[in-house]
Amino acid sequence: MEEDTPTASKKIKPDGIDGQGPPEIGNSAGGDESLDFIGRLPDEVLGTIISLLPTKDGARTQAISRRWRPLWRATPLNLDAGSDLTGQDRKCVLFVSKILADHPGPARRFKLPGFRLRNRYAKVDGWLRSRALGGLQELHFSYDIEDPMLRYPLPPSALRFAPTLRVASICSCDFPNQMAPSLRFPCLKQLTLYGVAISQDALHSMLSGCPVLESFLLESNLGVGCLRIKSSSLRSFGFSVSCYGNRGQNPVNLNELIIEDAPCLERLVPLDSNDGRSLVIIRVMRAPKLKILGTLSDGITTLEVGTTVFQKMISLSLTTSMRTVKILALDSCGPNLNSVVDFLRCFPCVQKLYILSHLTKDMKNKRSYNPLDPIECLETHLTEVVLYNYWGMRPDVDFAKFIILNAKVLKKMLFGAFNNGNAKWMASQRRRLQLDNRAAKDARFIFKRDRLYGFTRSDGDTHDLRMDDPFRSYLGR
Predict the structure, then answer these.
(1) What distance in Å separates the CA atoms of residue 201 and residue 188, rounded to the nearest whole number?
(2) pTM of the complete model
(3) Number of structural domains, the chain?
């Protein structure tokens, strides 16, 4: 929608925003009322519809008819102060203030994305104290960081919603650490902290007050060196080590993660690539339902699964296996066949394997398969392999060939290739990969031209628990 140009004659009307007309929802004025199917719905249903509309359209429903006029005020407020409301700071302040003044509450959702703070801290604090936001269920709060050396405090008034919040996303600000010990979030199921400066003790206190938390995204934060996860409800956890901005001297970044006791945890998703700048130790002590793991890279200096230990993707001991993991993603130099095989022994029931390759021409991937020492994953479980950044050179050919010749239940192998895939190159690859000798006779092999620098995922990959495979969207699959 294009932004209206303000004129002297255009004013904000009492029942609308920016003088615009109502949306085309069940408006039977001048027509046959028998065709107004939406208008026949009960007020409760219409209220639900209004609460799901964009903020501007929800407010404009008051102008549809006399019957619709009171519904917006009687419906829990959905206030999104993003670009759909207006693209101008000054108008955003006016619109948000007006909506909060006009609506009696309660509220379902308040989203303030990328707000330029400047001299408006008192204004934001006033919004958060508004009666209209009583009973708030979803809070999305983020500043636009104009000067990374300045402090951008989260108003403590934002935490007054702790008793009712179900979804919270707090970004690009300093957390009021002194409040953490008293905070309780009895309804919170989804939490995102992005670019937040928060102390280690404050974060642990906050998490201990979230008894039903199901998904947690911790990305680019400062102040937490060691994080211990102990949660009876958490199902999905995504995190990154690299920090956001440069606030303060010698910032504390996450360097150790301990999954101490997470009986419901299904997915553990490290978000950093192996750029060598972000290093972390991961210790998985108890996660009996873990199904999805990755991306693992040499940015993880140490990975401990029980008594099994990997350092920089190289196994030091293979004494514990985790049979629950079904989807595994690895960011591997080479790719290193011996290292990948050791991961498959640690996670012997993997069904889908994703490899992000960084070709090393001197990598030796020659390895014979010993049927007297079988790899369970290749024998009975591995059905799908995706190999990104495939060059078709000897190291990655030898790597792929080992899978092709030994994965007995493989159904599909997808190559994200650099080459344009002309007939000559494809014929050469078919011969070098020995596709005619594949162990699984019904397996399909698909080549797509693509280059992937890293698994860059969205919040939904951590929070959408209906998504059974967060890596599936790559290469247009």
Answers:
(1) 19
(2) 0.85
(3) 1
